[in-house]
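S2.1 Query sequence (DUF6593 domain-containing protein)
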Amino acid sequence: MNLSLTRNDPLNVELVRPDGVALYAVSTPFKMSGQTTKIMKYTAGDGSDAEASMDEIARINWHYIKTTRIIYKGEILEVNKFLPRPKKFTESRCFVAPNGQTYKWKLGYGWRLKTVGPDPQIVATYHPANKRADKGRIEVDVSVLDFLDLVITTWVYMEKTNRDHGGQANGTSAS
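Output structure tokens follow.
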């Protein structure tokens, strides 16, 4: 599945299927400090109306002095516990999905989400916007669709922190 970004801003963007249907909306009101990002998922109505509703799946409370917190499915988690680094001095971060598998976001040209283990498989790839493509996109393997909310939440965190640390909007590393 491919999700296109409507803007080149991971904090204020909609993620849209190829048929034009929006699946997620990410919004971050501007504040000088203590910003909070909401990640909302569009859900189909009961079939009686054409309107879709939105459910909040996650909230990220950004902090620069203390630890950033992610509220995911009602649970408040410090980012270093929710998305620990596999080793010091790396941009990569890992998480354990509901299926028990550990996944790692790794930066290259864009982000790649891989399984952790003896035979790592790429299960999601963020293709940043470039001169040929006005909008970025996230390509997701069917194996992670059951926890796509978690994949999107962690991608928002990874891309925002990459840009904060000097990484370019095109997904390159902050070297």
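The chain has one domain: 2-164. The chain has a mean pLDDT of 88.
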